[in-house]
Amino acid sequence: MSDQPEKDIQFDADGTTTYGTLHVPAGHDDTQLAAALLLAGSGPTDRDGNVPRLGVEPGTLRLIAAVLGDLGIMSLRFDKYFSGRTGGGAYAGDPAALDLAAYLRQAAAAYDVLAAQPQASRAAMLIAGHSEGGLYALLLAGSTRPAPAGLALIEPQADRLLSLIQRQTDDLLGQAATAGTITPEAAARDQAAVTTAIGQFRAGQPVDTSALSPDIARIVEPELLSAANARYVRSDDAVDPAAAAARITPGTRVLVTAGTRDTRVPAPAVRTLAAALAGAGTTGPGLRTLDETDHFLHLPGVGLNDAGLAPAAAAALRDWARPYAHGPRPAPPA
Q1: N or C: at which end does the chain have fewer Cβ atoms within 10 angstroms?
Q2: Which among 284, 221, 288 has a CA at the least distance from the CA of 252?
């Protein structure tokens, strides 16, 4: 390895060349290191945790890689389908064919590539997932070998996908009713309409969103009415994250974060997920509540695309990863 900690890497998944970044802390050429696979959130999110086409560029995964790198932990992150250099690959002509299993195969291929690196210790493989990547981490941990020694679930998808949408819309409507911008009766009508629409989708029936207010329809319709998303949504919604958590190998070192300002991942679902992991016999920091921290690990006043993690988020990552840390090699004598 050169003294540059990061290099481009590529690998094949389902006939698609996937592009990523391998981060190996400098000074560890012949050292066995803990190795973490970093998994991005939903949609066309690239290796750094960005969706440039939507103007979302917080660099979350790149920042997590830096925190782990400071502890002497190597990592691999990659461009998911329809992001970065990877693009659509084999799915370019038929994006509607993508489902959860396809994304998991891509993640599994990345894990195998990381485990095969000469610096990677197969006894200290780790997976860290942000947002929907947290669900991927849970599912990958139960199927890949060697089984990861540790899992970090950062603001993870902690409920079935459409149940999460239900929670999000319920929270928004409740806040609006409390603020007086809508009546309690209007909030109740929207909540009932969301419940009906989700039930219709799950039952394979035509979905009627005509009773939804425009703001709520904008949240729900991309999930329930898009033919391009339908296959993926059904496959993701079929998974109960708490059930997957209950199958994690006992002794796995786990971190689960819950930012108190995260409006995308409601805290009750995260607590249920953390309880299921604890019940499975996992160890580690477990649930860490991050005060005043949002979905992208920012404190109030920090812009969406401002680089930096909330101190509490970085500290939680370090606490989780500390048993796998490898300090810098001493300089040779003069």
Answers
A1: C
A2: 284
Pairing of strands 6-13, 16-23: antiparallel
Angle at 140 between CA 259 and CA 320, to 5 degrees: 45
Per the DSSP assignment, residues forming a β-bridge with 17 are 12
Global pTM value: 0.93
Residue 247 DSSP label: T
Q: What is the DSSP string of 39-96?
A: E--SSS--TTS-BGGGTB---HHHHHHHHHHHTT-EEEEEPPTTSTTTTTGGGTT-GG
Burial class (CB in 10 A: 0-12, 13-18, 19+), 92: exposed
Q: Phi and psi at residue 13, in whole multiples of 5°? A: -145, 115
| Alpha-helical segments (H) within the chain | 60-70, 100-115, 132-141, 161-179, 184-202, 214-224, 227-237, 241-245, 267-279, 311-321
Query: pLDDT (tens digit, 9 = 90+) per residue, 29-78?
Result: 667 999 999 999 998 999 999 999 999 999 999 999 999 999 999 999 99
User: Which residues contact residue 249 at a Cβ distance below 8 angstroms, ignoring those fewer than 6 apart?
Assistant: 141, 147, 280
Measured CA distances, 3 to 23, 25, 28, 29, 319 (Å): 11, 8, 9, 9, 27
β-sheet with 253-259: strand ranges across? 6-13, 16-23, 74-78, 33-39, 120-130, 150-154, 253-259, 283-290
**Residue 174 has which token pair?**
């409740």
Q: Which of 241, 270, 45 is nearest to 137 (CA)?
A: 241
SS3 190: helix
